[in-house]
Amino acid sequence: MALLQEDRLFPAEERTRAIARTLYEQIKALPIVSPHGHTQARWFARNEPFPNPVKLFVQPDHYVFRMLYSQGITLEQLEIGEEEIEEPREVWRIFASHYYLFRGTPTRLWLDYAFQELFGLTERLSEKTADRYYDTIAEKLATPEFLPRALYERFNIEVLATTDSPLDMLEEHEAIRGSGWTGRILPTFRPDPVVDPQVPGFLDHVAALGALTGYDTYTWRGYLAALQQRRAYFKRMGATATDHGHPTALTEDLSETSASALFEQVIRGRPGDIPRADADRDGADEPG
Description:
This protein is mostly helical. Among the domains are: 49-143, uronate isomerase, domain 2, chain A; 191-243 and 250-283, no CATH class. It has 14 helices and 3 strands. A 3-stranded parallel β-sheet has the order 1-2-3. Helix 11 (202-213) crosses helix 12 and helix 13 (256-268) crosses helix 14. It starts with 13 loop residues before the first helix and ends in a 5-residue tail after the last helix.
């Protein structure tokens, strides 16, 4: 039995569903343009096999591990942030035994599609099937057909954008550009580490931004100039978009005097203690 129903994303009403099928048939073979992919540039720069299923499906996808974290599973149990995973099969078993949590979510639709269409797995992932899933996926990941660049071509991707910190030197993007491979992997500017005062380590990030750009980022004008320099570099590397994690859509047109005073409050104080409203005002003034 298949994991997925063929018309799963189409309307339930029969006549409307027929129209959806007709439209889908006309566009399903078009290449994919992905402006926000949960991928890492180094996958394509190095083009090495994924070492295990956890490195592919759990560790890089915050929609997966945040769901597990919300239910009391620690990031340490999932080895999130670790370069080398010591117990990948155990992490996978944790994921599998809690897979029911994803019922009815877009994440579940995507995962079931990948499990079925790429790995031929048609029995639902669960505690009972965890090891069979792990072994099947691990075996296929070791083949040339599952190298990152081969998958890029297989999926008919035209362009894939990563998400990158302003502090990222984009070496892996440089390596891709210099490799001669024709795949388009573009960076995306994600400024949260240096524009949201409530991000852990904010002051350290701002200091690092200054060291990277040569500007005094503890002054308002120097801070703006540093951000502008990094955005220009991202643009030269092919970036066409920014990606922001603002909790609200608040915008406010502050005078330079007001913006500078607010920035001074953040820099000289304790960023984590800045009220959310003031933090939003500070982040809203990033240069366009």
